[in-house]
Amino acid sequence: MNVEKLRTAEDWVALYRYEFALPVIERGGYVMLPITSRIGVLHLPTVRAERVSESLVEEGMSAPVLARQIRWSFVVAPDDPPGPQVADVLNRIDIRIPAIGSAIMLPTGLGRWTREGCHWVVPPTGDDTTLPPLSAVITTALAVGGGED
Q1: By three-state DSSP, how is residue 77 classified?
Q2: 13-25: per-residue pLDDT in tens?
Q3: CA 74 to CA 124: how far, in whole Å?
């Protein structure tokens, strides 16, 4: 599909569904990725997210990563949710896990500047079987630190 010819949110929904195998929907003229039991997201502050992305690549894993101004969002495969103690640590270091039923906005462009104010750092591949487990990304996020040192 030629992305230069995509003009509407519906065009981008088709691209995300058929090229990238993401279960997106159109809502209010925007492309939204619903959080489900099959597709999850982990929001991290930018500095920590950069370290996590690099570390995942070193470990032979990769996740689609969406960048916004102050945080990045990793698209993951939900597995075991963190227990209360880990959830408390994540909350203290500003790492968020959106709940099932919520959604995140995806860009209607593959370049750095989109009308949504976000862009893909690591674009989706079209193979959701390669999404890293949420627990692996959380473990990596806790291991790499947040750049405060």
Answers
A1: strand
A2: 999 999 888 999 9
A3: 10
- Output the CA–CA distances (angstroms, integers) from residue 38 to 53, 63, 79, 101, 149, in the order listed: 21, 14, 9, 12, 35
| Residue linked to tokens 């065009």 | 11
Write out the DSSP string of 97-125. Answer: -PPTT-EEEE-SSSSS--TTS-EEEE---
Instruction: Retrieve residue 97's tokens.
Output: 């896990």
Global pTM value: 0.90
| CA distance linking residue 50 with residue 55, whole number of Å | 9
Q: Go through 97-128 and write b for each residue having 16 or more CB atoms within 10 A of its CB, e for each that does not.
A: bbeeeebbbbbbbeeeebeeebbbbbebeeeb
Q: Report how far residue 90's alpha carbon sits from residue 142's, in angstroms, rounded to the nearest whole number.
A: 8
